[in-house]
Structure formats: C-alpha cells, structure tokens
Design brief:
747 residues, TIM Barrel, binds beta-D-glucopyranose, alpha/beta, six-stranded mixed beta sheet, 4 domains, Rossmann fold
Length: 747
C-alpha cells in the first residue's frame, strides 16, 4: 500500500509507472544499473549463490524457486516463479501461521504422456494452473519436455517421451491448460538436457539434423501450438556453448525460425557468463547472483555488450511482469479447490497407467481377500525427487487404496513394514552424511522383506490373490544406475517365492510397478499373471491403481517409450554416463573431469533414438513404443488418407469389439521414400484417442498433420526438405502393431 501510493505520487511528478505508461516510457526511465539488476533474480533462499538478496522470494511466496527484481519507483513489482511440473511446489507450513499451503501432487509427466490424451492433459494443466493462481505464484516452472534419450536419465519421470511429437503435443496441451488461468509457464529445459550427470557443465555434441528432428522438435511444437509465456534454457552446453549463451539457439532458432515472442530465463545458476547470456537473448538470469550483475556492467563498460542488447531483454522482462497476476493486483485466495483437484489427479492417473501383461486375471473378479507384498505397497511413491517433488498433504498407498475400495487386506504387517522403511531411510540418510549431494540424493528403496515359505503358504490359503509392488525413484542431479534398471536379488526372490506359493494354491499374482522410468522386464515378465505399470501417479496413486485393478476403468495408457530387452540395446547406451560418478558443480567450480560422457557426450546415434533405433537395427524389444493392453479389444477399419492443401488427413473407424467400455489411443506414423537422406523406418506424426466406447460402439477419428511435417532436416542445405515420392501412412495400435498402410504422394 505504502509503495503503491509512493508510486502514484512519483507518477504524478512524471516518473513513468509500469501499467500506466507504455513499456517504452518505463524502459527509457530506467537507469543502466536498474536494467542490469532487473534482468537478474533476487537470489534463492538458503543459497546466496554469490550474494544476491537472499530471502526475497520467501517474503513473496515461501518455497517458490525465484523472484524477479522489483523497482518500486517505476511501479514494477516482484513476481514469483515456482516449480513444477507435477504440481506447484511451495512451502506448505509457515512459521507462526496456523494455515497450511499444501498443493496437489498430480501424476508425473511420463504418466501424463502415456495417456496419449491431449484434452485430458489440458484439463490437468488447468487444475495445476488454478493452484498456481490461487497460491499467488505468477509463473509455473513447467512443463519439462526433454526427450527420453536414455532410460537412466534421472529426470525422465518429469519428461514425456522418446518421441518429439508426443512430447510436443502433450507439452502444448499442458501449457494451454495452465495458462488458461492467466498465469505463465516456463517450458524446460531448452534444450538437449538429457542426462543429470555433470549437468551444469556437460557438453552435448549433437548433429544439426538430430537437434532439429528429435531434440528441438517438441519445443517447436509447444511454441507454435501453445505460446508459453516463458522458456527455461538448460544447464548443459550444445556443441561447446552453454545453451543459455547460445544466440543461435535462443535467438536465431527460437525467435527467428519459430516466431517465439515470450521470455527466456536460465535454469537456476545455469551458464557462466551473464553478459553472454544477455547477448544471446536469454532475457532473465535466475535465481541471480552478484557476479552476473558485475559481468553485465563490465561488458557494457568495455563495449562487448551494448545497452541496446540489454534493452531487448529488459523489455521482455517488463512484458512478463506486465501480464502477471501480481501486476494485475490479483487477490489470490490461498484456497484452491484441493478436493476437486484430488479427483482430477485420481481420474487422470487412470488413463496413463499401462497394462503390460494380463493372463485373464484383471480386472479382479470374485476377489475379497488380498495379500500385498513389497515395501512399496505400504509406501507408494507419488512422484520423483528434487524440484519436481510436490509438498502434498498425503499419498494414498496401495494398502489404503485397496481398503478404501472395500477389500480385506491383511495389514497385520503394516507397522512392521513402516518401521523397516523408516529405519532404512534414516540409515541411508546418515550414510550420505553432510556431502553436498546429501539433500538431493533419492533415498534408495528399502530392501525387500521375504516372508518364509510357511508364511507364504498360509497367506496363499487365506487370500484370493497376491499383489506385489516394486518401486523406483529418482530425481534431479543424478542419473539412475545400471543396477536400478534391473530387479535386485531381493525383488526377484520375492517375486519368485510369492508366485510359487500362490500358484501352488491355484491363486494369481499381480505385479504393480510404481516407477518413474524404464526398468528391465524381459527376464521376469512371464512369472506373474499380470503387470500393471502404474508409473508414479501422484497423491491418489493407491486409489487410482485400485480403480484399474477392479475394472472401474479399463486401462488405456500406452508406452511413450520403448522397454528394451537389455539396457545396452539402446543406441544411446554407447554414449551415456552409465554408472559414472560426478559431483554437483556450481559456476565457480566446474572442473574438466576428463571422463567420457561426463565432460562431453557425443550423440552418435543421431536421429535414431528410441523406436527409431530399434526399428533400424531390427532389435527385439520387451515392450514396443505405443504398447498397452486394455480390458477390451478394438477393431480398426474404414481407413482413408488424403493429401490436399498441404495437409495429410487420415481417418479411421475404431470399434470396441470386447465386452467392457474403454478408450483406445491410435497412432499415425509415416514411412518416407528413400531420398538423399537416410530415413527412419517409421516416424510418429500424429495421434488421437477415442472417447470411452461402450461395447459394440464405434468412433471415427480424423487425424491430420501438415505435409511439411514429413520433411527431414538437410544439413547440406541448412533447412527442411520434403522429398517427392510415395509416403506410406501407417495407422497403428503401437509401433509394432500396424493395422493399415495407405499411401500419399508428394509431388
Ligand atoms: C531445475 C529446474 C527448476 C529450478 C528451480 C533447477 O535445479 O533444473 O527444473 O525449475 O531448479 O527450482
């Protein structure tokens, strides 16, 4: 209030005020020092990062990740930037305040992508955005859309897919949903951020073609289809230059080629030269350090950066502040509809769970008594660790979910399991000690408890079915280890002994995978009677899994990535820091470690990522891209394809030929004619999902995409080239289940 009236007073004396006078006038009234401060955040609570104004964010919105720099004399408020992407990340409990500020933990990105349902993801984004708006944040640091280049990337759970069209379309839907609340998003991490090991200094070496067709394509789709308020540059380098310092990436490609009009901010403490970032078109540096301010001022003094270049970034920062809820004086309630959002997360999670195996056991029939095994059944994982974690009020475990649905679950071991889990967690934390990584390290999963044969036999007599949950967790700073990819000895022993005992009693066993990334399945997938890949389904996880197990909803999720037979089958495995050790480095200390794939990672597989690699090399997989079972069956018919007015139009009739209602995700791939360039066997170009179809019901899906989307990036020409010839259009239920092939001719 005081500041506002001071602003009015000054305004009366002629000092321009943001929102009252034009941006031009405000910009003109700023001193050089103010400009250099304005493009830099106010620091991060608990981390001075070189002496910026620590604590400013906590005053504005406790637990937010960053704040913009306020200039009261010009009517410029600070706005709050908060994580993402599985829900808003703020401080739930505040000193001296009896209220709580919990946020909804929605499903992880990988689960959302596995829905293949853009409308649904948009509605989830809308619910997330409401929490952003009502808790007083201005920009939500999400979605995260980097490509799943390798299964062990520790942040794959936040990301969507190995395919750029899935990443782009799902990301665009998410942005539209969030931004419908008049708050901003920050699409991250732009770009080529495909490993956590040495993430702040790693140099990704990638061909222009792989950049354009694979790693940039998703961002291009999001920019063109949803107009995000902001984009977050990544930590890594691309071909020797930090992405946040690459004018080619942030100005020539993003703004020049794609027409992006919004703001680019750094990832937190990303890059090493504030002046180079401004010159590249990285408009805002977060969370901000004094060093960056000095770098900008020094560069202007010695002429290597012009004030006009700085003005370009200042203007974009002003535009961002101007459109923020804070600037509009939005009186947030601190009371988002958490109950409604719990229903949104529970329901949306159902569509992204993937039924991998089912030998007639699901949905559960005539089951009353359920035995649960595996520590994770008692301690469900809502989502990954790090900035992508959400401070939620609760997580529904499988035990709770089954009980909520009225099953008799033997929970006599509950206390025992909870004690075991807590003890192992404490021991793991103690072992990490005070290392710089300790606060971030995902605590290893507790060792499995293997009941004795007698206990198992008794359990199999008493119960109608056994459910075993296996869990995996990961998060930023670390990639997963090769050991994490496979079931460990305890998990295998548990699976084998439970299955032996229950099968001996004529009872079935279901495995639930509560994981954030791909694991090995080929060696054990035939042991249980069903496998449900539940991903990390947010705070209602146990309820959502139960809804699928009981058949309240038929599963309709499909894999947005390949499950390989072996980790090393991936082309990217030849150049990924598998089991490499690296510390976390901030800008002042980034040594050249001299380790392959740590200092520098060569993307030698080029465009052959995910199914493109397995197709090209004819390598068998455990589960193909796009795969997922249902409780019903679908017939595809009446295929039609045309090419007119620059658009490929595909239509297909999908009929539910089974006995329960369900949805089906349909995928459209192309296979390009041989031209000058090497072409993938097939590439996804579009997808759609049916409504919930009753048994016998049909729906015709009309799916279209631009003919230009069939182009390849020709490095010799430095541009997209659409070769003439016959293009095959493949309509499939998965990459390995193509139901029809038609042709279009490009002249
Ligand atoms: C992460 C970003 C996140 C930022 C702010 C960084 O460590 O890479 O994804 O938005 O922190 O919390």
């Amino acid at each position: 209030m005081l500041l506002a009236s001071a602003g009015l007073l000054l305004s009366a004396c002629g000092t321009p005020q943001l929102g009252k006078q034009s941006i031009d006038k405000v910009l003109k009234a700023m001193t050089l020092e103010e400009k250099a401060h304005f493009v830099i955040g106010t620091g991060m609570s608990g981390n001075s990062g070189g002496g910026a104004t620590v604590g400013a964010t906590d005053l504005l919105l406790p637990g937010a990740a960053g704040t913009t720099y306020p200039i009261p004399r010009l009517g410029i408020p600070a706005i709050a930037l908060a994580d993402g992407p599985a829900g808003l990340r703020i401080q739930p409990i505040r000193e001296g305040d009896p209220n709580t500020y919990y946020c909804t933990h929605f499903p992880i990105g990988t689960l959302l992508a596995s829905t293949w349902n853009q409308e649904l993801v948009e509605s989830v984004g809308k619910a997330m955005g409401e929490e952003v708006h009502e808790y007083g944040a201005d920009v939500y640091l999400a979605p995260a859309i980097n490509i799943h280049r390798h299964p062990l990337n520790g942040r794959n759970f936040e990301y969507y897919s190995e395919d750029p069209v899935v990443a782009g379309k799902i990301g665009a839907a998410y942005v539209r949903g969030v931004q419908s609340n008049d708050v901003g998003t920050s699409v991250k991490h732009f770009a080529f951020n495909n490993q956590e090991t040495n993430r702040t200094a790693n140099n990704a070496v990638i061909s222009p073609r792989a950049q354009r067709e694979i790693y940039l394509k998703g961002f291009e789709i999001v920019v063109k289809e949803s107009d995000p308020w902001t984009i977050m540059s990544s930590y890594n380098k691309i071909n020797g230059t930090y992405t946040s310092q690459s004018r080619e990436l942030l100005t020539d490609i993003l703004r020049g080629d794609w027409g992006y009009k919004g703001l680019v901010m750094t990832d937190w403490y990303g890059g090493d030269d504030g002046a180079a970032q401004i010159a590249a078109g990285n408009d805002m540096l977060q969370p901000g350090t004094d060093l960056q301010y000095e770098q900008i001022m020094a560069a202007i003094a010695d002429g290597s950066l012009t004030e006009a270049e700085l003005d370009v970034c200042v203007r974009r920062c002003l535009e961002l502040v101007l459109r923020s809820p804070k600037m509009k004086g939005y009186e947030f309630s601190n009371k988002p509809d958490l109950e409604a959002h719990a229903a949104v997360t529970r329901q949306s999670a159902l569509e992204g769970m993937v039924l991998l195996e089912n030998k007639g056991v699901l949905p559960l029939k005539n089951v009353k008594n359920v035995a649960i095994f595996g520590c994770t059944s008692y301690a469900f994982i809502a989502g990954g660790t790090g900035s992508g974690d959400v401070n939620r009020a609760y997580t529904v475990s499988l035990l709770d979910g089954l009980k909520n649905a009225g099953f008799n679950v033997d929970d006599s071991k509950k206390d025992f399991y909870e004690k075991h889990i807590a003890e192992e967690k404490a021991a793991a934390q103690a072992a990490l000690g005070n290392s710089s990584l300790a606060a971030f390290y995902p605590i290893p999963r507790p060792t499995e408890i293997i009941p004795s044969n007698a206990e198992l036999a008794a359990s199999a007599r008493k119960n109608d079915i056994a459910i075993i949950t296996f869990g995996r967790n990961s998060g930023e700073f670390f990639d997963r280890s090769s050991a994490d990819f496979s079931l460990n000895a305890g998990e295998k022993q548990l699976l084998n002994s439970v299955t032996r005992a229950f099968h001996a009693a004529g009872k079935k066993v279901v495995v639930v995978l509560n994981i954030g990334g791909v694991i090995e399945t080929a060696s054990w997938k035939n042991i249980p009677d069903a496998i449900l890949l539940a991903w990390q389904a947010g705070q209602e996880g146990g309820n959502s899994v139960t809804d699928i197990l009981t058949g309240k909803e038929s599963p309709s999720g499909k894999l947005s990535m390949t499950f390989p037979v072996n980790l090393m089958d991936h082309g990217s495995s030849a150049n990924f820091p598998i089991d490499a050790e690296a510390d976390v480095y901030f800008p002042d200390k980034r040594p050249d470690l001299g380790v392959k794939d740590v200092d520098e990672t060569k993307y030698e597989e080029g465009i052959y990522v995910g199914y493109r690699w397995f197709d090209k090399n004819n390598i068998p997989v455990s589960y193909p891209f796009g795969y997922g079972l249902s409780y019903t069956t679908f017939d595809y018919s009446d295929f039609a394809t045309s090419l007119a007015d620059g658009k490929v139009k595909v239509s297909v009739k999908v009929t539910n030929t089974g006995s329960v209602a369900g949805k089906e995700a349909v995928q459209v791939y192309i296979s390009a004619p041989a031209g000058n360039l090497d072409k993938p066997v097939k590439e996804l170009k579009a997808f759609a999902k049916t409504n919930k179809l009753a048994p016998g019901e049909s729906q015709t899906l009309d799916i279209s995409f631009a003919a230009a989307d069939m182009s390849s990036w020709d490095e010799s020409k430095g541009g997209w080239v659409l070769d003439p010839g016959i293009y095959k259009i493949l309509v499939g239920a998965s990459a390995a289940d193509i139901r029809a092939i038609t042709n279009v001719e490009v002249k």
